[in-house]
User: Fold these one by one.
Assistant:
Number 1:
Amino acid sequence: MEKGLTYSEAIEKAGNKLCRFPLKSVRGVPLMEPIAQKWDSVWAFCPDPSDLLIATYPKAGTTWTQEIVDLLLHNGDAEACKRAPTVVRIPFLEIYSPPPIPSGLDLLNAMSPPRVIKTHLPIQLVPEGFWENKCKVIYVARNAKDNMVSYYHFDRMNMTQPEPGPWEGYIHKFMKGELGWGSWYDHVKGYWEERERRNILYLFYEDMKENPRREVERIMRYLDLSLSDDVIERIVELTSFKVMKDNPMANYTFIPKPVFDHSISPFMRKGEVGDWVNYFSPTQLQLFDEDYERQMKTVNIPFRTKI
């Protein structure tokens, strides 16, 4: 980032270099073109063993988990966690944008370990250094139907992702894995199958909604932390959807309108389980359920579409 520029100002300055970037295949996974062009640098990234990776399919509770982790590491200090926007506090490993917007690697290289790092990469594209150095990894999975609805609205308002088109066509793109970061099915299965061998804490969005305190405590134990009950309660409150939606350091309102158009759909839209029932027609639901059964038949991941 250019000296003296905030992240928002860097985006403003990049101006007309930003557009709806096409997807390009990297080892069979569609990624936004700027990421694909810089892939060798991403793949070469070598984390410190003390670094923590938060991995998700897009719109599966990433920002929520980032905020929980940051608050846990800062003993529930809300002001400390407003020191910078989410993207600066917890850099997005693979993201590349036109200068002067800093890439994820630029931000990471300017930080000293231990760092918390975000990725949407499927497990086979995570740089090998994370496994070689036995970094801790938190993975969050969200049921396919709600995840798809949330991603659809995000693609509508994010002016750097491909045009989503109409909902009825988006369902087919999702089922075929023709969206940024590829197949939801391959993504959730890949981390699930490796979770024990690679010491991955595998969380479910629905569990986090149902009992946030329990899941905050799970994350705390995984990070080898021990916080008092009142601090944990504070973290649960500070990471509630209502509080985060009003937190300018976490709600992505710091991204200017030419990139994230919140008038189309807010970044933090509903944060609910079961909103999918408002979108699927009976025909779409039957088609999707049959395809889901086929794609998930080799695993038994306990997803829930309502709580």
Number 2:
Amino acid sequence: MTWSGSLSWGVADTVPEVGPGEEVVDAATVARLEPGLRQPPEWAVWAPGDGAADPLGLTERLVEGARAYGARVHADTPVVAVRRDATGRVAGVETGAGPLTAATVVLAAGVATAALAAPLGVQVPVDPSPATLFRLRAPAGLVRTVVHNRDFDLRQVAPDRLHAAADSAEHTLTAVRSTFRGAADVELLGSGIGARPMPADGEPIIGPVAAVPGLYLAVMHAAVTLAPIIGRLVAQELVDGVAEPALADCRLDRF
């Protein structure tokens, strides 16, 4: 995790209302935070508490932590269906390697959540939201913060590497080169497209499903950002059997 703070500008035509931990800063401050900018904007939203995480590395650390606490991890074992007993209660899952028994199944399958829930008669309003991530070779220190504007979401992930979430490779390269000094030699190393889960109203869907005892949903768009706190709250609900007030607005029955 890199706690670099984030700068956002040019997304709206007027100065937005800032949220907790954010402030509007002037061009001089922007230039100090991102000295490589050719033309610092007149204003930007600065969030000093923001950071960036490597999703793969974060997932690996969470899995390692789960193993350390006794969890059994079945890697590369696709779940093909949720199993139920004769009473309709969840009894586990069917996988490519055979059945696994469980009294509770937390369905946190991203874009596959809706398809796995549908045979149970549960409609989960989640659709895929494609996102393209470009990997760029760039000079060390070109980008100091997480930068967000109309052209890209950009961050430095290694001394000579940038990650950019944007729409097209050509536009991204042109935008990065024109936005930062010393970026003329920035080059594209590769790209990938991810299908992010997007609930119908954009908000997380978390909680037990009354119609299918033993089934618990956990699907959201900002999964990497919310994973630590959502994981803790879900665990508390399942272990203690007490509804968490913080999740009250996240239930499936709001649809």
Number 3:
Amino acid sequence: MSRLEVRDLAAGYRRRAVVSGVSATVDTGGWLGIIGPNGAGKSTLLKAIAGLLGHSGQVLVDDRPLASLPRRERARTVAYAPQIPQLPMGLTVTDYVLLGRTPHLGPLGWEGRSDLDVVDDLLTRLDLTGLAGRQLHTLSGGERQRAVLARALAQRASVLLLDEPTTGLDIGHAQALLDLVDELRGELGTTVVSTLHDLTLAAQYAERVLLLDDGEVAAEGTPGEVLTPAALAERYTARVTVLRAPDGSPVIAPIR
């Protein structure tokens, strides 16, 4: 699949810098979790990487500037699921998820059996089968979030950008979603970059984490290297202890 590299990226709004000097590399099939306190610039960084926000610096996929790729190829290369999506009216869940297959359709624009199989598989794995015929506007917040993620996953892009993908999901659906993303890394070699508010989920799923604070990289490394009580106290103004799950991954627990 694809290797993602970000070089000295800076972005913001109305001439106000939100992130600056961000550099990171995610190898093929890797998972980088972007963490940081509220207002650190996590979503801004992800939008800039996706090419949805003007920026300086470079975003490279397999050493090619992402912005230089033809639109259709770019859509097959990078998929992005926003934290707060703008959903079209009048579409069912199935029709909406099928939109993710658009970059792979032939000249006539008709989906084939393989496209429908991809969508059916995602609806099943994200517990959406029972909602397949429902209109998007009738869904709860968590159900809508799962539909948005299903559409992004249906793209089968080589790089997957997820902005707070577990927002609004209960712990069971959050784990199911992250398990699915992890499985796609193994099956397809998908490269993943996600912002995650839940530090324990970030520690248990991302191979490496990038701690963003005030728009700059405060630390980058394995979860064990970055998620320390001292670092979290400094960057989050939080009282926490770091426990260990059975697999050895960190569990971030607050202290009253």
